[in-house]
Amino acid sequence: MKPTLVIMAAGMASRYGSMKQIQQFGPSGETIMDYSISDAIAAGFGKIVFIIRRDFADDFKAIFEPKLSGRIETAYAFQDLDDYIGDFKIPEGRVKPWGTSHAIMCAQDFVQEPFAVINADDFYGKDAFVKAAAFLSSECKKDVYGLVGYQLANTLSANGSVSRGVCKVDESGNLVEINERLKIYREGGQMVYEEGDGSKNGLDENTKASMNFWCFHPSLFEYLKTEFKTFLQEQATGDLKAEFLIPRTADQWVKDGKGVIKVLPTDAQWFGVTYKEDAPVVKEALQQLVDKNIYPKSLWNLQNA
């Protein structure tokens, strides 16, 4: 059975200020997602599950269905605030989605096989999809998950600080822990991150980072349901912006002794759009890949059906 790719596209894009998931960056109007989907098809994925906002469904399908029809199976999941909350009362004023782990929960009706999860607005590179597909097809089990690990130094933005899941990896290549660092940037040529009190700590150039390219077994869904209940009880009542995030739940899964998460190193170049000022950089990077014949000028016109 071919693995499935789950694409998280329900975010509100608050920092960027627009629906960046469908902005055109490629020379023939391609979105970043188009490149991820094309790479996934080439790597052997058999289905794409989009997690989107319900009010955006028609516009979203109109963009992607003409491109993907006949090329790969597609499904659409919606992330709503009242999904999986049971008797919990949504706090007044809460409008922000519950976060990436909750988004995965919302896709469970469409996923019965090992699956990868990515962000819609990140470019991951061909090698990352090849590594993920191979792992999902041959190694992924209910107690063996995976994470594509990038060089942290290759994931920063020149236009502001970034949040990254900073990985600690053991000698066997397994994830020991993942710490969400909310403010990483370069200062005087050195990578640093800030704590909440403003203090700064250095980061090694070889540090592995999670860019939310995960490889999971469907057994994850039951674990997420349990953890989500705990999150709602402990964090969601008093903080209108609290999020149930994949790095934290993956870290807890390991600490709970559920299994191991193998870090799959890739030399692929990651880039993404965190700030509007990143957009020209992304366009130029994609153009360079086209110029090197890594991608065709018109991605879907030349994609084999």
Task: Report the C-alpha radius of gyration, rounded.
Answer: 19 Å
Low-pLDDT runs of 5+ residues are 12-18
Number of DSSP helices?
7
* CATH homologous superfamily descriptor: Spore Coat Polysaccharide Biosynthesis Protein SpsA, Chain A
Q: Tell me which CATH architecture applies here.
A: Alpha-Beta Complex
| Strand and helix order | EHEHEHEEHEEEEEEHHEEH
Short description:
About 2% of the residues have low confidence. This protein has 305 residues and is of the alpha/beta class.
Structure description:
- The protein is globular, with a radius of gyration of 19 Å.
- Helix content is 27%, strand content 26%.
- Helix 1 packs across helix 4.
- About 2% of the residues have low confidence.
- By secondary structure, it is α/β, with parallel strands linked by helices.
Quickly list its features:
about 25% strand; about 300 residues; Spore Coat Polysaccharide Biosynthesis Protein SpsA, Chain A; 11-stranded mixed sheet; alpha/beta; 13 strands
Topology:
Elements: E1 4-8, H1 32-43, E2 47-52, H2 57-68, E3 73-78, H3 100-105, E4 115-119, E5 122-123, H4 126-138, E6 144-151, E7 162-169, E8 175-187, E9 190-194, E10 200-202, E11 208-216, H5 220-236, H6 246-255, E12 260-265, E13 271-272, H7 279-291
Parallel strand pairs: 1-2, 1-4, 2-3, 6-12
Antiparallel strand pairs: 4-11, 5-13, 6-11, 7-8, 7-11, 8-9, 9-10
